[in-house]
Structures are given as C-alpha cells and as structure tokens.
C-alpha cells in the first residue's frame, strides 16, 4: 500500500492537532487548579475587612474614649432646667442654685460630667456657674464653668478634677449655683440641658 504525500501531510496535521489538544488540555487543567476557591477568597476578604474595622474602632476608642461610652442621664434634652436670678436689689440673695438629688448613685465607673449650657439673653455677656458634687460621706468639691453666654456651650468636666471626693460609690447630689460676684449681668436666666455622666 502506497502513501501519498497528501496522506502523510494529513497524518502530520492530525498528529499536530492531537498534540495541541493534549497540551491545551494539560495547560487549561493546570490553570483551573491554580484558581483559588471562591469560598476562600470570600472568607479572606471578610476577615480583612473585619480586621480593618476592628483597628479603626480601636483607634477611635483610644483617641476619643467617650465615643462608645455609656451615659447616665440626670436631665435629658426634653426638659432643660432654668436658673433665674436677679441680684440687682440690695436685699436680694447673693446666690441662686438648683440641686439634683442623685439618690446615692454609684458613679465609680464614670469619668465625665457632660452638659450643655447657655444664658437666655445677651450673647456678649459672659457668666460663670459653680458645679458642686457631694457624696454620702459629705465629701464635696466644686468646678466652675465660665464663658457662658446666649450661645449653647457643650461642657465636659472630668470627675477626676473633683479631687476632694474620694468615694464615688454613693453620690448624693449635683448642684449648680449662680453667684452674684461671678456674673456680669445681674439679672438673667441660665439654661442647663443634657446633663449626663459618661463612663
């Protein structure tokens, strides 16, 4: 039986095609094996995002601890309290105060006293108010908030500044006092709102 040149060429072409198909199959199988599992990619992505979120939250917490802190409200924004005073007459009292009975509450885990404050009139006049905390042992200490005018002022007082109070486990009262010598405008109203202790 004789093989023509055409037959031989056809054979070679078929052989080459078989070799190419075989190589392509081997190469594609290897590529398929190299592709990572979609589940592993998803889990890796979720873990990476989780780690980034955790790091961000930790950074925020360390730089601004109050961001996630629990609050204990003494007075919320629905019920602001007013201290109206008039020190103009000679026979009038020289102080005006408002006191909150805290019922021997445990503040040992709390770090700040936060509040919002403003005067009712005259944005140019700055007033000062005395803040006093007292515990069941009658230990008491004071801090002053100054620069009060007709614009709302947010105030944060560190409880560690009330150094004369050693026991925070039973705190009895919180008192705000306007004193004659400490206000420019002798007749006005101080508005206090959003009073809370922050952990």
Question: How would you sum up this structure, described in words?
Answer:
With 199 residues, the chain is of the alpha+beta class. It folds into 2 domains: 5-66; 70-198, Jelly Rolls, CATH 2.60.120. It is 28% helix and 40% strand. The protein has helices spanning 5-34, 38-63, and strands at 71-75, 81-86, 95-105, 112-119, 127-135, 140-148, 153-158, 171-183, 187-198. The strands form 2 sheets. Strands 1, 2, 4, 7 and 9 form a 5-stranded antiparallel beta sheet that branches. A 4-stranded antiparallel beta sheet has the order 3-8-5-6, with no helix packed on it. The N and C termini lie far apart (101 Å).
Please describe the topology of this protein:
Blueprint: H1 5-34, H2 38-63, E1 71-75, E2 81-86, E3 95-105, E4 112-119, E5 127-135, E6 140-148, E7 153-158, E8 171-183, E9 187-198
Antiparallel strand pairs: 1-9, 2-9, 3-8, 4-7, 4-9, 5-6, 5-8
The averaged pLDDT comes out at 82
- Assigned CATH class of the largest domain: Mainly Beta
Query: Largest sheet, if any?
Result: 5 strands, antiparallel
Report the principal-axis shape.
rod-shaped
CATH-defined topology of the largest domain:
Jelly Rolls
The count of strands amounts to: 9
* Helix-strand pattern: HHEEEEEEEEE
Distinct helical segment count? 2
The helix fraction, in percent, is 25-40%
- Which residues sit in consecutive blocks of at least 5 with pLDDT less than 50? none
What is Rg? 38 Å
Domain count, please report it: 2
Question: Which percent range describes the beta-strand content?
Answer: 35-45%
> Which architecture of the largest domain per CATH?
Sandwich
Question: Which structural class fits the helix and strand makeup?
Answer: alpha+beta
CATH 4th-level superfamily of the largest domain? Galactose-binding lectin
Q: For the record, give the distance between the C-alpha atoms at the N and C termini, rounded to a whole number.
A: 101 Å
């Amino acid at each position: 039986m004789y093989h023509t040149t055409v037959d031989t060429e056809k054979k070679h072409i078929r052989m080459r095609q078989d070799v190419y198909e075989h190589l392509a199959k081997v190469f594609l199988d290897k590529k398929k094996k190299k592709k990572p599992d979609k589940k592993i990619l998803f889990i890796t992505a979720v873990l990476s995002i989780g780690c980034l979120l955790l790091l961000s939250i930790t950074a925020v917490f360390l730089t601004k601890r109050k961001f996630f802190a629990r609050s204990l409200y003494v007075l919320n924004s629905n019920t602001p309290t007013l201290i109206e005073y008039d020190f103009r007459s000679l026979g009038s009292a020289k102080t005006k105060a408002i006191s909150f009975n805290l019922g021997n509450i445990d503040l040992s885990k709390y770090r700040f006293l936060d509040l919002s404050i403003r005067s009712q009139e005259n944005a140019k006049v700055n007033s000062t108010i005395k803040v006093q905390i007292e515990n069941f042992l009658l230990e008491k200490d004071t801090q002053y908030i100054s620069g009060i005018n007709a614009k709302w002022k947010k105030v944060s007082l560190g409880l560690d500044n009330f150094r004369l109070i050693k026991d925070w486990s039973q705190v009895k009262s919180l008192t705000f006092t306007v004193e004659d010598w400490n206000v420019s405008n002798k007749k006005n109203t101080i508005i206090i709102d959003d009073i809370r202790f922050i952990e």
